[in-house]
Amino acid sequence: MALNIDGVTIPDTQLAREITELVRDTESALLFHHSSRVYYFGALAGKQRDLLFDPELLYAGAMFHDMGLTPQHSSATERFEVDGANAARDFLRSHGIDRAEVDTVWTAIALHTTPGIPQHMHPVVALVTAGVEMDVLGLTYNQYSAQERDAIVRAHPRSDHFKEDIIQTFYNGIRHKPETTFGNVKADVIADKEPGFRRGNFCSVIRESAWPG
Prior knowledge:
- By secondary structure, the protein is mainly alpha-helical.
- It contains ten helices and no strands.
- 57% of the residues lie in helices and 0% in strands.
């Protein structure tokens, strides 16, 4: 029986079942369970924020968001986020999903590592990022009850060393195309003008997050 937390559950649809099967068969257990937790945390965040969203589209965004880290969907030149977004787009188009909805899922995946923008966009875009930021960075850890966190982790376990495992998984998925990691230019400008500037560090945030392990 699917996990149900305060009415949040995986959509009981053929599309969602096919997404589950595809992602489970393609991704490592680490990424499959991470992506599943992203869905639950994102959907709960939507309830907390009183947002209206399509759970099926949120599930597609959450489950495909790291597909670009897998060998099957990793291109030679695109950002891994774009590779994952393209995989979701192709899958949803093949199932006859409306173009506007496909574009929403594509955008949610493409922007999930770009902080400061998704929360101002469509709820599905905002909530995929919210789920990622909770599960990887623990940014909203205390906005979920211990019961909610425990139930999600029981259903979709975190590895004993999840923080280091997810960093290594990211590295493995992008090391063949380091040029695609070029990001927001503002930190470069400040660093150029202020020698003492210290950049934020994604890996440090993961290791220092409220999540145990």
